[in-house]
């Protein structure tokens, strides 16, 4: 049996020593080939402004609120220039905004519109970047007073401009950014008249209003609306275009259904509970933040989902419009529906719930429209699209619309985010306070092993559930690269304050690294590390055999994570976006941000790393984690060393080294604080006089000395 166990252990060692480097290479290759981003390097706006005004005499720095440059000539002001990122920072296809330089005349006419920086992967689809520039040039000659619409058929009151085949979402977002920024700039300059300061507050949904209704009732009273398209309607929209004779159908089928889309505001109780049932409705709405809403969409025929959400996480066939807002949806906003609860509900090929994020300022009491984009391919890359809209007006008794008010001073985006997440902030600060108390009183706690283990495991559960899955508070090595780049490019607190949970965790990591080293974050506050340890603990409880690598192999595998860190750092110097893709070796995004709802290779990688913990504790943390490698570099500035050792530790006693479940204790008894996760197990053994050999020896000597001091008369 002993010989067989040694063979199994040796096989496992060989497997790990080979599979870990192989997996690193495989994920590296996958990131390179499957999901790399093209990034346009930022351009200096001054030469572009000079091209627009060859006879200028001066160009001011960015000034005022919003930030605007003034261009002057011999006869006075020639125009104004501003960047969309400074005024209307709106995420595009890649999740990052397209920064545009916009130049307008003193009368409000667009004189130039140039792309300064983008993170769009359009180049991977075979579309030259020059096409993006050609799109932006269409604004020249238009006015900030115009209502500009991208693509589709001409609508009354709108000025149409051509879209960009293959980058529809990108150019639509660019249009919103340009027009919003231009409107705010023109209002501040007095070119157009701003609103009088009186604001109609956003309506709120009455959560206490509910009526039992069937599907036909909801259709009949307008709670659910329908957009119905026939083949003839769609063909008529393409008549006169390059796609007129593409994807046509026989005349006998011209009146057949092309697409039917039902849609409704699903967080209204009467609609949501009747459609999905009360328990499902509560599950869908419990996670909504203030200002967020749910739109239900059901469809047959032409797919409203398209394929963009699979390739890049964006639904490129469906949009919601309200006033001047154009709302697009990403995969993180989408929930698939499998069944309808409403009596008499028909069957649908596709059923979805889309979350409208709070920053869209969607008003549930105001009219809105759903837009379905229909595309016909005219070539390998080129295509023509048109759109169809259906309107929605909420029933008055579903919402509470307050009277118009004069708004108080607006909170900045950073202040608003912190205000909205103040409960999370308080809870997280309390958790960190509890952790600091544990560390300060560790010498007392380790004398109570059962309580200490339960306390630690409970804390790890909270770390996984709250910090990880509920709040998405998982630090990444990408945060380190972003911080380093900001130091060189101009540090701004606003960038780091936009996510309160991440900011607080970094502050906690910085403080604990200074006092105790990186071990505290990795051992207590890292959600993925906590999840690994809990899985391993369950495996040990279930008596699953555990395997440890020989020390000679183990200490050499430590180097892998430092090599990964160096490689990622080198890539980040050239392109931070590209480094983000290669940083997918961290399974954090898959596990906590997307909750395993993404492409199978990423899910398989995360599950593989987690499954290793059934046999070996925290394999990823020990050998592959670039974040742990980055944090361990700070170990040399650690102020305190509160992990106690005795002269006998390591020679002759090796109990702590054998019991250390991440092998952070050298055979000579020295604790490697670059690898330690501060679980305090060694301190529990250190304080246990029934387990620690030096302590047992001291106790035995003390008893012998006491017995030798007893007077003869007492014997």
Task: State the gist of this model.
The protein is α+β, with helices and mostly antiparallel strands and 715 residues long. It is 43% helix and 15% strand.
Structural description of this entry:
It is a single chain. It is globular, with a radius of gyration of 31 Å. Helix 14 packs across helix 19. The strands form 5 sheets. It has a 5-stranded antiparallel β-sheet with strand order 1-2-3-4-5, with helices on both faces. Strands 9-10-11-15-14 form a 5-stranded antiparallel β-sheet. A 4-stranded antiparallel β-sheet has the order 13-12-16-17, sandwiched between helices. It is an alpha+beta fold. The longest helix has 33 residues.
